[in-house]
Amino acid sequence: MIKLVAIDLDGTLLDSKKEISARNKEALTQAKAAGVKIVICTGRPLAAIGIYLDALNLRDNGDYSITFNGGLVQKNDTGEIIEKSSLALENVHELYELAKSLNVPLDILSDGLVMQLSTTQEYESLYSQLNKLLTFESYEVAQLTTDRIYNKAVIAVDQAYLDEQIKKIPSLFYDRYEVIKTRSNLLEFMPKGITKAYGISLLARDLGIKQEEIMTIGDEENDVPMIEYAGLGVAMENAVAKVKGLADVITDTNDNDGVAQAVEKFVLEPLRGGN
Q1: Which residue, among 52, 103, 111, 48, has the nearest Cα to 84 in the 3D structure?
Q2: Which alpha helices (H) appear in 179-220, and where do they start and end?
Q3: Given the residues 8, 10, 63, 219, the one annotated as active site
Q4: What is the CATH number of domain 4-84+194-271?
Q5: Helix %, strand %, coil % for the chain, to 5?
Q6: Does the active-site annotation cover 10?
Q7: What backbone torsions phi and psi does residue 222 show, to the nearest 5 degrees?
Q8: Calpha distance 126→44 (Å, rounded)
């Protein structure tokens, strides 16, 4: 029996208009009412998903989200962090030098603040277009201090240019960080070992939920670890090939209520005594 459903946002729960369909909302509302934990699992900070938590009525005591691709596990009602992992200042300095060498913009996320570092004069970061609910401020690397939390680093730039620059990243960065494309024009750096699966495993441990009682739903490369980890990994029909190849089940697209279809079949029907 599924007791926890972890769901990605973009390309999964959200349709092409960045909205949650009525059918998706109804299926998740019914699952929550039946006692199933509905957990948004995203690369975004909590400040950037509030409208979706409100739409799904996931602001009660006992509602949780996994943010920063597994870097934080938080209570939705208070924002309290119950599990966390972040980058050290020395990591930020190292990634700053990498971004300069690649001639790409670098943004550092610190909770709801995005610190935009001056690593290139030629390319402007696209991150503010991708996450309009966050606060963006320009910083010099010398202004960064050890008392801040650095959740992740991102490079958001034209896809064709990004793909070319990715080829130039030295292998040691893949040894030291989780380096993942979360969208076609967005590359993210997380602490090594920190993935959505890691965040889910911590929350499941805290809640006493077994791995086989977890269903995950996603579409992008950063969803691969949680698709592999879950008792039931579900890929969207619009998912990248790697996700679809590793999933236990492929549901419909994000524009055709794929999340609702999976929840109805694998969560609600068994609860009602169906096959």
Answers
A1: 111
A2: 196-207
A3: 8
A4: 3.40.50.1000
A5: 35, 25, 35
A6: no
A7: -75, -5
A8: 15
Instruction: Look up residue 78 and give its two tokens.
Output: 């208070």
CATH number corresponding to 89-191: 3.30.1240.10
pTM score, two decimals?
0.87
3-state secondary structure 2-20: CCEEEECCECCCECCCCCC
The token pair that represents 40 in the structure block = 């948004």
Q: How many Cα neighbours within 13 Å face the side chain of 235?
A: 21
Phi-psi region of 14 (alpha: psi -120 to 50; beta: other; left: phi over 0): beta
Per-residue tens of pLDDT for the chain, all 275 residues? 999 999 999 999 999 999 999 999 999 999 999 999 999 999 999 989 999 999 999 999 999 999 999 999 999 999 999 999 999 999 999 999 999 999 999 999 998 899 999 999 999 999 999 888 889 999 999 999 999 999 999 999 999 999 999 999 999 999 999 999 988 899 999 999 999 999 999 999 999 999 999 999 999 999 999 999 999 999 999 999 999 999 999 999 999 999 999 999 999 999 988 65
Domain ranges of the chain: 4-84+194-271, 89-191
